[in-house]
Each structure stands twice: as structure tokens, then as C-alpha cells.
Amino acid sequence: MPYRAPVDEFRFLYAHVVDLAALAGTERFAEATPETVEAILTEAGRLCEEVLAPTRRAGDTDPARLENGVTRTSEGFDAAYGAIAEGGWVAISADPEHGGMGLPMALTTAVNDMVSSANLALQLNPMLTQGQIDALEAHASDELKALYLPKLISGEWTGTMNLTEPQAGSDVGALRTKAEPNGDGTYAITGQKIYITWGDHDLTPNICHLVLARLPDAAPGTKGISLFMVPKYLPTEDGTPGPFNNVRTVSLEEKMGIHGSPTAVLDYDRSTGWLVGPENGGMKAMFTMMNNARLGVGAQGIGVAEGAFQHALAYAMDRRQGASKVENATGSIVDHADVRRMLTTMKADIFAARAIALMCAVALDRARSGGGEDWAARAAFLTPIAKTFGTETGMAVADMGIQVHGGMGYVEETGAAQFLRDVRVTAIYEGTNGIQAMDLVARKMADGGEAAFAMLDEIESFAETARERMPDLAAPVWEAAETLRETVEWLVAQDDLNARFAGSVPFLMGFARVLGGHAHLMAAMADPEGPRARLARFYITRLLPQHAGHLAHARAGAEDLYAVSPDDLAA
Amino acid sequence: MPYRAPVDEFRFLYAHVVDLAALAGTERFAEATPETVEAILTEAGRLCEEVLAPTRRAGDTDPARLENGVTRTSEGFDAAYGAIAEGGWVAISADPEHGGMGLPMALTTAVNDMVSSANLALQLNPMLTQGQIDALEAHASDELKALYLPKLISGEWTGTMNLTEPQAGSDVGALRTKAEPNGDGTYAITGQKIYITWGDHDLTPNICHLVLARLPDAAPGTKGISLFMVPKYLPTEDGTPGPFNNVRTVSLEEKMGIHGSPTAVLDYDRSTGWLVGPENGGMKAMFTMMNNARLGVGAQGIGVAEGAFQHALAYAMDRRQGASKVENATGSIVDHADVRRMLTTMKADIFAARAIALMCAVALDRARSGGGEDWAARAAFLTPIAKTFGTETGMAVADMGIQVHGGMGYVEETGAAQFLRDVRVTAIYEGTNGIQAMDLVARKMADGGEAAFAMLDEIESFAETARERMPDLAAPVWEAAETLRETVEWLVAQDDLNARFAGSVPFLMGFARVLGGHAHLMAAMADPEGPRARLARFYITRLLPQHAGHLAHARAGAEDLYAVSPDDLAA
């Protein structure tokens, strides 16, 4: 069941939901002309359909493996990665000064989405490199930029992110890796890092690790963390990889999915590193890297959802079983109401999640092209929502994809299970979805909810405009936004952060449901007699009502939750 | 993280939610004295904790395999199965006439739940045998009963269910396996069956297959299907296994989980079979087998949920990371609001699902012990709910269990992922959850909703009684029941079955949410100052509100759903 890139859906979203054209009017993104956008979408789509998607199964059945200290990658990954790098797809948003194309994140997000559908395990590799490029562009010295950025942007070398240590997962402040000054401006890095995605591989001649570590006498916790560039091989004068830098791959994890992505335990033993950003300023640099990566992970979830959806739809259209009396019957199981319900839910939620991710990306682009603080605040606010709703949609859609297949879905040969096993990690890495939700209700609402209210004003205002032509769709969206507004008001009034945290994931999901309603309403208004309006009606009538349950949970506070004690749980 | 059998929870449910004592007052279940119940719970609990649970991991890492035509089972399964059989645990509800204990399904359901926590892959084996025993007790000739029942009840032989064929999944009527009379009262069975759980293994000297097949000139569809007993080895005069009966294992499926359970493709080539029940009466016999198996599968979901919950709780209590300012802080991640939310959700939903399964089991027992048609109707009504909500809870809880573990949850070594991979099949087999929901809104509401309304009367009446002492818990349950009543009224008024089917899964989930609220309210009333009331408050305040979203979907009808055409989906 070959993958077909959803290029039309991106075109539609750019035109009717997120106003990509406005970006081309800015100096920064003047290159993003309609012609360029079209070329990017169709060329990336073709790459994914023809070159990358055929390698997805091997990324499951032929896992990356460590052989005598050398990490070997899955069958076909070498050529597929080569096509990504040679096509210039690693970092189309990167700075043109170092070889990037300077295109909007709105385009990168579409590319990440499509590449993730085609092969999630492989897509992680350029996505990590993208994060590293962002961090270097924002924080590295000119020397480091000049040396590393061209290699990373061209895909000649790849980048990784080294945060986690065995004793410190989500609690980055507890890390122990040491960085001792060598006296020549470099540092000796010593320690062990775990869960390093594409931490080692045989696709490129060098791998660039950004490593969080502590200087001698650094403050405890997150305030005493610095960031270092530690290449696997030390670059020589002419920029080619030279001596081994004592970055040893201890082992690869055996994971539930993304078997084609080597997840390494790396051991640094007085490996040479260069400081990125100021001493003890590692957390800030890391957040640059992670924030963009979070949107990227949201796109991964959506991409896998798309892949799983297409896979399930093709199966269902092909499977003839029983008969269902419906208009325009296909004779396949798509005629059965519950199969149709699952497939339509998948399609409608993918659209909602994709719209949210693009709203976030465009806000980032607006902020970067001189749009001001409001756009930056919106981007910051939407990032955890895009990450969490994108990945939750990925999991839910992949799960429904298995269910559409019936017994065949549980047999690995079909390939349906791979989507779920692969996408499951996206709810965990780059900050678990629970951490995203905490970020949303605390840091991202530390402004008293301003960014949230601005978004709600826009949703309600659009619903009011839409009310005349589509009252039955506009009214529920407006009402849901009002319930959400009341919930935001309740949340920002809570000084006890635990009262916000206790229902933070349901709050985030409720917010996403309403944003999805908004996006579907915009789509329906743009295509009032067409398939977009029909899908919007399905979403608004059947899926949007879930917001009420989520928001009731969000407003329940912490007291009743903590009343159930650990002893009660263990009873 | 050793499994601890939730014996206290069963005691509590029997005493305060489902009134097990009333059963002991009937002639049929006079043996189910408090002493017997206590002995069953504690002995089964001990078996699961000490003997079965230690074999669970091997059932994942050491899959069943086919070697030169012989199916080899996972390390330790032989001894574990032996302990189940020798302890008399295969069929405690079976007829005492053939060696059973004649105990209520309410007890079997608790045992199935615990054994599934300990080792789902292995539990499938006795569960399938239970289904076969039910079918034989209800439909087989006295000769067949006398020969097979003692062997099956003792666990000396095991039983399987052969429905599915390559071209016919959920559509059983499309099957093609032939049964030709041999002239001596036996039949020659020829055809291929797929997805045969424990279809072959090396644990017992014989395996008894119940096979659906067509007699020559049988009517097409489900009306022309008959049921046959086809043993792997033909029993000799003295009842020991004799000549091979041409039941060949073609292959074993490579599945997402339950690797320890061999799922076979079986080839029958003029294998000798004996008719069970009348000619062309196979569907009825199969429904006997499947109906009870459906409740059993619900218990499997709950059991895996319990295992995943205990695993996650133990991890969370042990994991020290970050600090959260809460009363009675443990210093572990259990103090974090979102971790606490996940664990409490898991615990509360397990309780709800378990209560529903036991309500169904007790209704079955009441019907069998002379309680009359109303109990039979209730059992029939609750069966698809118990199956679907039990298995959906299994999946949701196992998924949250991974999330509680963070990155460790995605690494197979931790064991958290196994619960999700294992339990995923339970939503598919014995009739997918979509088929359960269709059964609920069509066959099980063909009585005009009588069984549903009787259940709702009981829920509302209890909520009215509880209103005085616990108004803030009783009122939301009563109101949810009213919304559900309106939805049932709407559904039974729909003559177009597709209007019912279009929201049938959400309807089922909404019904389960309300039943769960009822069970939690009963628990709170029985333990008003204790942990049961605190958990009930969490459920009723935070999880029960989900019913509104489900029921809005359930009432949306089919028109808007079918408006989204297959072409729209493929667009």
C-alpha cells in the first residue's frame, strides 16, 4: 500500500487556514513565493513516495545493530539518507549564509510530516540535525558556526542531542557529566548519556553531539549546566574528520518501535568539547533546540497518523466482507458504519492536528520575520499543544488503523502494528506529553493567559462571522470556545500550581479539540459544498463534544486528586 | 516488580457491588459458601503470584515456535500450565458431573482476571478450553460429553475454537471448510483455518478442535454451518490419544504481542470429526462458546490492566526525580500531579471495568440458577459492554503504564511495553469491539431497550437513595443516567440500523462510563470515609464527564457519517 503525500491538504491549509501568503510579504521569507512553496511540496512529496516510503518496513524488520563497536543501519537507509541530504532536505529553514534555504517553518513542518509518514525511524536523523542547527545558529561562536553549520545543513554530518543520564530523565538538573577546561579553550567531557537518538550510525563520516555537562564548581541543578559541541571525530584543519574523540557507543536499546533508529548509550571519556553559548547557559541553548524539536515531534505524530490512515483505508477499500446497505456502496468494509466511523475520525483528527501544527509554525515564522511579541507568545503557547495533540493523534490513529484491519492488524506482516509501535515514543521524547501540559498551564500561561485569550478571541470572532452562513457548525465552535475561556479564567486564577497541573493534560487536549473545531470551521467556510465541509460537520458534531469532558477534568483542581494517597493506590 | 493478586478488591466487589451471597442461596450455587469463595480467591491469587507471574516475560522474549512441524512453547510454560491443570483451575464453573466444581461465573471471572495479569499468553489456553466445555455441555451428545469433558475439565487435554478462514474474518458465514459424512456417523473435515489460538502446542498429549464447517448441499451463509469436534489425535477405546487425525500446523503467526500463545494456521485434510449439536446448527453452538468467551476476554483486559498498573505504580514509587510540594510527599514521581492523575485514572477505571464484568457474571449466574429471563437479558446486554470496556481499559491502562515509565517505558527490557502489545489483541478477537457495539445496539436492544432501561432504573434508584448522604457524588451519576436514558430512547426509535451503528462504539463507552459511576457510587456508600470513596470522587468528578462526549456522538445518526464518502476519505 504505497504512501501518497497529502500535498493537496497542505495547499488547502496554507491557503485557507494559516495564510502562508502573508509570510512571503515579509523580507525574511520573501523567497517563499507560491512557486517555491509548490516546488517544495511536490518535490518533497515525490521523495517520500518514491524513495523513502519503500524503506519503512526494513526500519522495523532489520533493526540497527551494534557489531564490534560499529553501528550498522537498516537495509536501504544509506541510500535513503543520501537522497535526503543530496536533495537539500535536511534543513530547508536554515540560514542561507551557511547553505540553508531560509524557508519558513511552515514548510519544514510539512516536509517533516511527509518524511515521518514515509519512514519515522529515518526522519529522526535529520530532525535532530535541524534542532542542532537551530541551537548553533542562536548560540554558537562564529568559528563553530563556520565549521559545523555547512556540514550539518548539507547533511554531510549529522547532529544529536545529549541530555539524559541514567539517574536523570525528565529532571535534567540532576545530570552529572563533567566538563573540565583543557586550558586551550576546549573542554574535556566525561560521563555517560542515554537515549541518544541516532547517537551512532554508519550513514555519515562524522556525528556532532551537543552535550549538556557541568563545569567544575558549577551550581547544582539546572543553573550549573553548560552546552558543548563534541564531535565523534575531531575535525582537521581542512574540515574533514580526523582522530577519534573517545565517544564510545556502549549499547543500543531494544525498543518497542523505531527499530531503524539507533538509540545509543554513549560514553564520553575526556572527549574534547567546545562551549556553545555562555558558561552555565546550557539550559537556554537546550530549550532553543528542544522547542523547535517539539513542533517537529508533533509533525512526526501527524505524519505517522497519515501513514497509518492511508494503510488502513487501502486495506478497508480492498476487503470485501459482509454487506451493508448504504448509498453508493463500495462492497468493501468501508460501507460498515463503524469502519467508516473509525476512518473518518482518523481523517478528521489528522486535519485538526495538522492545522494546529501549521498554526504554530506560522506563528514562529511571523515572530521571526518581525511580527512582534504577540506572535512569539502564540508560538510558545501553541508548541506544547502541537507536540501533544500531534503525537496523541498519531497514537490514536495508529491504534484505530490496527482495529480497522481486524485480526490482520495484530499480525506484524501487515505493517499496521509498526505504525503504533513506532509512534508510541513521540508521546515520550522531547519532554513527555505530561511535561508539555505542565509547560502549557504554568510557563505558557504565566502571562495571565494573554496568549490563550488572544487565540480564543480569534476563534470566537471567526465563529461569529461564520454564524450566518453555517449556523449549525459555527454555534458549537463558539460555545466550546466559551467553555474553554471559562476554564482558562479558572486556571490562571489558581496560585497553587498543582491545581493547574492536576488537570493539565485534559486541559491541553480540550484546548486542542477547540482549535481543531476552529480549523475545521475555517475549512468548511472555504469549501462549503465540498468534502472539507462534510468532514468538518463530522468533527464538530462527533468529536468536538469531547472537549466538555476534558475541561471538566481540567477544572477539578488538585485536592481530590491528592486525596487518593499512594497507600490508597497500593491498596 | 512482583504481581500481587487484588483479592481484597474482589472481596469488596462481591460484598458491596454485586451481592455474591445471594447466589449461595440458590440450589445451583449452594457450594459457593463464603469459605469456598475465600479459598478460591486466596489459592488462585497465590498460584498467580508465585507460579504464573514469573513466567510472563518468557512468554514475550521466548516466543512459541514451529520446529519441524512441532510447536514448542515458551520457557516455563509447561510447568505453569501443569500447575493450572493440577490445581483444578481450568474450569471451576464446569459441571460437577464431569469433574467440574459448578462454581459461579463470578468466581471464574475473578480467576481469569488474576491469571491474565500473571500471564495473558498462557491464560488464553485454559480460557479457550472453558469456552469449549460450555459448548459441549450445552450442545454435545452424551457420548461426546462423557469422552471429552473429563479430559478438558481436568486440563489433561485442551480445547480450541476454529472459526476464521483466510477469506472470512468477522463474516463467519463466508467460510468454506467442508464436512462430508463418512457413513459411520463421523465426518471427513477438509479446509484451512487461521488465527487458531493455542491451535498447536506441546503442553498436553491431545488437542480438541471445535471446527465450523459446511455439510454437502448446506445453505449458503450462516444457516449452513455445522460444528464438529475434531481431535488432533483420535481417542482410542480407553480414551488415550491414538492415531494422528491429519490436523497439520501450517505456520504460526508473528504477532505484535502474546508471543507465548501459538496462533496457528491449521490444515484439515479429511480429518475425522463428530457433529456437535444438530446439522446446520453450528452458529448457535458457536455463540454459546463465544458469549462466555467474550466475558472472559473482558476479564483478560482487566487483568492486563491490573498487571500494568501495579508495574507502573511500583516504578513510580521507586523513581526519585524532581520534587513536588504536596502533603505527605513520598519524594518519588508519584508526587507529581500528572503521574498521580495517570495512576489514579488507571486504578479507578480498573475498578469500574471489574465491577461491570462481575455484574455481567452474576447476571449469568442468576439466570442459570433459576433467576429467570430478566437476568438472562441483563447478562446478554452486559456481555458486549464487559468485553469492550474491559479490553479498552486494558489498552488505555497499559498505554498509561508506558507513559508513567517515561523513556524507560519504550525500552522493552522494562516490561511495560509488553502489557500494551499483549492486550492489544483483546479488542480484536472474539468479535472486534466494533462488532460488540453493533451487537449491543441491534440484537441486545431488539427488546426495545428493556434490559437497558431496567439497568438505568436500578442506577437512578440507587443514586436517589445515595443522594441524601453523598449528594455531590449521587447527583452527577443520576444526571448521567438520565442523559443515557435519553440516548437509549433515541436509539431504539431508529429503525435504520445504520443510525444506531454509526455511534455504537461511543454509545457502548458512554454506557460503560455511567455503569462505572454507579459502581463507584456503591463503593463510596459502602466505605464513605475510606479509600473507595476517595477513588469514587476522582472517577465521578473527572472521568464520568466523558459520557457526554460519547453520547453526543451516539445520537448523531448515520447521515453525516455516510456523507463523508470513500472518495472524500481518499482525497
From TrEMBL, chains A, B:
Q: Where is the Acyl-CoA dehydrogenase/oxidase C-terminal domain?
A: 280-443
Q: Which residues form the Acyl-CoA oxidase/dehydrogenase middle domain?
A: 161-269
Keywords assigned = FAD, Flavoprotein, Oxidoreductase
Question: Which residues does the UniProt record annotate as the domain Acyl-CoA dehydrogenase/oxidase N-terminal?
Answer: 36-156
What chemistry does it catalyse, as a reaction equation? 3-(methylsulfanyl)propanoyl-CoA + oxidized [electron-transfer flavoprotein] + H(+) = 3-(methylsulfanyl)acryloyl-CoA + reduced [electron-transfer flavoprotein]
Q: Which InterPro entries match?
A: Acyl-CoA_dh-like_C_dom (IPR025878), Acyl-CoA_Oxase/DH_mid-dom (IPR006091), Acyl-CoA_Oxase/DH_mid-dom_sf (IPR046373), AcylCo_DH-like_C (IPR036250), AcylCo_DH/oxidase_C (IPR009075), AcylCoA_DH/ox_N (IPR013786), AcylCoA_DH/ox_N_sf (IPR037069), AcylCoA_DH/oxidase_NM_dom_sf (IPR009100)
Enzyme class comes to oxidoreductase
Q: Which cofactor does it need?
A: FAD
Looking at the record, the residues that make up the Acetyl-CoA dehydrogenase-like C-terminal domain are 456-563
Q: Which GO terms describe its molecular function?
A: flavin adenine dinucleotide binding; oxidoreductase activity, acting on the CH-CH group of donors
The EC number on file is 1.3.99.41
Free-text function comment from the UniProt entry: Involved in the assimilation of dimethylsulphoniopropionate (DMSP), an important compound in the fixation of carbon in marine phytoplankton, by mediating the conversion of 3-(methylthio)propanoyl-CoA (MMPA-CoA) to 3-(methylthio)acryloyl-CoA (MTA-CoA).
Its family? Belongs to the acyl-CoA dehydrogenase family.
Protein known as: 3-methylmercaptopropionyl-CoA dehydrogenase
Q: Which organism is it from?
A: Roseivivax marinus
Provide the taxonomic classification: Bacteria, Pseudomonadati, Pseudomonadota, Alphaproteobacteria, Rhodobacterales
